[in-house]
C-alpha cells in the first residue's frame, strides 16, 4: 500500500531556496548614452524548480542570466546561490548558450571531457566514465568520436547539454538553447529535458521566446517587460509531468501567457506612441 499524501500544510516540506535575486539593476554605457537594461528585479528559485523567463527582445533576459552566472555584475542589488554572494562564474552554475559554443576541433567526447576540467579531483579514468555516462544520457553514446561539424543541429545541442550536465552543477542556466532547432527536434528534447531535470534534481533558469516551451518546461514563468527589464507578471504552471507540448491544457496555459504578453506589449506601444 502506498502512503497517503500529507494534506496538512504543517507536514509539507518546502524545498530550500537555491537562488536569490534581490533588487538587481543593470545599466550599460554605450556611445549613445546609458541603457537601463534591468530592474530592479527580485525573485527566488527553489531547489529543483524550473523557472522560465519570457519577454520581448531586449528586455534583459540574457543580462539577468549572465548576472546569475557571474559573467556580468549588477549595478545594484545582489544574487545569492546557496546563500553565498555570486561574484564570479562557478562550477555550481553552468550556462548553456543559444549557440551551442562547442569546440569544432574536438570530437563529441573531447567536448564533454572539456567541461570536466572544472573537476580537478577526478582522474582521467573517472572523467572518461563521467563523460560517457552523460553522452549516454543524451542518447549520443555511439557518436563519441564524431566531430561537431558532422552532427545535426539537434545533436550538437545534445552535446552542449551533456557538456553542461557533466560537471554535475546544481544550477543550470539556459539561454534559448533550442531557438535554432526545428519543431520536431525541439519536441523530442522537451521530453528528454524534463526527465533529466527530474532525475538529476536540477534547479533551472530557462530563457525562451517560446511561450509554449516555457509552459512545457517551467514550474513557474516570469513574464518580463522591457526598458528597463522588470517582472511584469508571474504564472505558476501546475500541470502534471511529463508534459507533452501539444497537450490541450498546456496549449490553454500558453495562450493565457501569450495574451498577457500581447496586451502589455500593445499597451507599451500605445503609451510610446502617445
Ligand atoms: N554589453 C552590452 N552593452 C550595451 N548594451 C547592452 C549590452 N548587453 C545588453 N545590452 C542592452 O541591454 C538590453 C537587454 O539586453 P539583453 O541581451 O539582456 O536582452 P534579451 O531580453 O536577452 O533580448 P533577446 O530576447 O533579443 O535575446 C538591450 O537594450 C541591449 O541592447
Ligand atoms: Mg537574449
Verbal overview:
- By secondary structure, the protein is α/β, with parallel strands linked by helices.
- It has a single domain, classed as P-loop containing nucleotide triphosphate hydrolases (Rossmann fold, 3-Layer(aba) Sandwich).
- Helices cover 34% and strands 25% of the residues.
- The strands form two sheets. The protein has a six-stranded mixed β-sheet, with helices on both faces. The protein has a four-stranded antiparallel β-sheet with strand order 2-1-4-5, covered by helices on one side.
- Strand 7, helix 5 and strand 8 form a beta-alpha-beta unit.
- It is globular, with a radius of gyration of 20 Å.
- The protein starts with 16 loop residues before the first strand and ends with a helix.
- The model has no long low-confidence stretch (mean pLDDT 88).
- The structure holds adenosine-5'-triphosphate (ATP) and magnesium ion (MG).
- The site of adenosine-5'-triphosphate has 12 residues, from strand 1, strand 2 and helix 1.
Q: How much is the radius of gyration in Å?
A: 20 Å
Oligomer: single chain
What would you give as the CATH superfamily? Answer: P-loop containing nucleotide triphosphate hydrolases
Structural class: alpha/beta
Strand order of the largest sheet: 6-7-8-3-9-10
Uncertain ranges: none
Overall pLDDT, averaged?
88
Find the CATH topology.
Rossmann fold
CATH architecture: 3-Layer(aba) Sandwich
Shape assignment: globular
Amino acid at each position: 500500500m502506498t502512503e497517503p499524501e500529507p494534506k496538512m500544510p504543517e507536514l509539507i516540506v518546502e524545498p530550500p531556496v537555491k537562488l536569490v535575486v534581490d533588487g538587481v539593476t543593470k545599466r550599460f554605457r554605450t556611445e549613445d548614452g546609458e541603457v537601463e537594461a534591468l530592474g530592479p528585479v527580485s525573485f527566488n528559485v527553489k531547489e529543483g524548480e524550473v523557472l522560465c523567463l519570457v519577454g520581448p527582445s531586449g528586455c534583459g533576459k540574457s543580462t539577468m542570466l549572465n548576472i546569475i552566472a557571474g559573467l556580468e555584475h549588477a549595478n545594484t542589488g545582489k544574487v545569492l546561490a546557496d546563500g553565498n554572494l555570486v561574484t564570479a562564474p562557478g562550477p555550481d552554475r553552468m550556462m548553456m548558450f543559444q549557440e551551442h559554443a562547442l569546440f569544432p576541433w574536438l570530437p563529441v567526447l573531447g567536448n564533454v571531457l572539456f567541461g570536466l576540467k572544472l573537476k580537478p579531483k577526478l582522474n582521467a579514468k573517472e572523467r572518461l566514465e563521467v563523460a560517457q555516462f552523460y553522452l549516454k544520457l543524451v542518447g549520443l553514446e555511439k557518436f563519441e568520436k564524431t566531430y561537431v561539424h558532422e552532427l545535426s543541429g539537434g545533436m550538437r545541442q545534445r552535446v552542449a547539454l551533456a557538456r553542461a550536465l557533466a560537471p554535475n552543477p546544481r544550477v543550470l542556466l539556459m539561454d534559448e538553447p533550442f531557438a535554432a532547432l526545428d519543431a520536431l527536434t525541439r519536441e523530442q528534447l522537451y521530453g528528454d529535458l524534463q526527465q533529466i531535470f527530474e532525475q538529476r534534481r536540477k534547479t533551472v533558469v530557462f530563457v525562451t521566446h517560446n511561450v509554449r516551451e516555457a509552459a512545457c518546461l517551467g514550474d513557474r514563468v516570469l513574464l518580463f517587460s522591457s526598458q528597463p527589464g522588470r517582472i511584469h507578471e508571474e504564472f505558476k504552471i501546475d500541470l502534471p509531468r511529463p508534459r507533452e507540448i501539444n497537450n490541450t491544457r498546456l496549449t490553454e496555459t500558453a495562450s493565457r501567457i501569450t495574451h498577457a504578453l500581447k496586451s502589455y506589449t500593445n499597451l507599451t506601444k500605445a503609451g510610446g506612441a502617445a
